[in-house]
Amino acid sequence: MWKRLLALVVLVSLTWGIWWLFLRSTERQILAAQETFLAALEDRDWETVRSMLASDFAGPGGLTADAAMPELQRALEGFVTLDIEAREPSVKAARDIGVSTQIIRVTGLGSPLAIMARDKANQLQTPWLLHWRKTGGWPWEWQLTQAFNEGL
Questions:
Q1: Given this model, what pLDDT does residue 62 score?
Q2: What is the 3-state secondary structure (H, E, C) of 60-78?
Q3: For position 23, what pLDDT does the model report?
Q4: Cα–Cα distance between 143 and 152 in angstroms, integer?
Q5: Dihedral sign, Cα of residue 115, residue 148, residue 68, residue 89
Q6: Would you tell me the crossing angle of helices 112-123 and 65-76 to the nearest 10 degrees?
Q7: What are the mean pLDDT values of the chain's consecutive 10-residue runs (152 residues total)?
Q8: Structural domains in the chain plus CATH codes
Q9: Which of 34, 77, 95, 112 lies 20 to 30 A from 141 at CA?
Q10: What integer pLDDT is reported at residue 106 of this predicted model?
Q11: SS3 state at 1
């Protein structure tokens, strides 16, 4: 009896693992990558943030990936507490590319510069457009190629 139960648990785990690794929709993969990116920003995990920016990244005001990193660090390092929330996310995707649209809200406390950045971000009424590109065979290998908001 225990052998059958163990076999069933192993079978269910393998099925779930295969689904998670290879059969999740592109939209779900992009949303997962986006959650990872926002969590890395919240944690000020600059290594993860940089690894998720494509070498041809284009940000607001023509920022490149290399130029965006010091700007992000300057804007977010002053926070003592930080929470970044994506509201109303929607994704349109093809096989290896996709665009997510969402309103981003920031809460947190910190230096006057951090509070100014938080208030500026929260004043935006237009959604962010984040363009993603898959860079490998694994479902977590997505990079951000463009970030755009009409309100900036």
A1: 85
A2: HHHCCHHHHHHHHHHHHCC
A3: 59
A4: 22
A5: positive
A6: 110
A7: 75 63 78 95 96 94 91 92 92 92 95 92 94 91 95 82
A8: 25-148 (3.10.450.50)
A9: 77
A10: 96
A11: coil
How many whole angstroms separate alpha carbon 129 and alpha carbon 145? Answer: 11
Element (H, E) at 104: strand 97-110
Contact of 147 with 60, CB cutoff 8 Å = yes
Amino acid letter for position 105:
R
Contact present, 54 and 144 (Cβ < 8 Å): yes
Q: Phi then psi for 137, rounded to 5 degrees?
A: -85, -15
DSSP letter at 130 equals: E
Q: Residue 81 CA to chain centroid, in angstroms? A: 19
Q: Taking the complete model, does pTM exceed 0.90, yes or no?
A: no
Q: Output helix, strand, coil percentages for the chain, rounded to the nearest 5.
A: 50, 30, 20
Instruction: Give the pLDDT confidence score for residue 46 in this predicted structure.
Output: 96
- Furthest C-alpha separation in the chain: 64
Strands 142-148 vs 53-58: parallel, antiparallel or unpaired: parallel
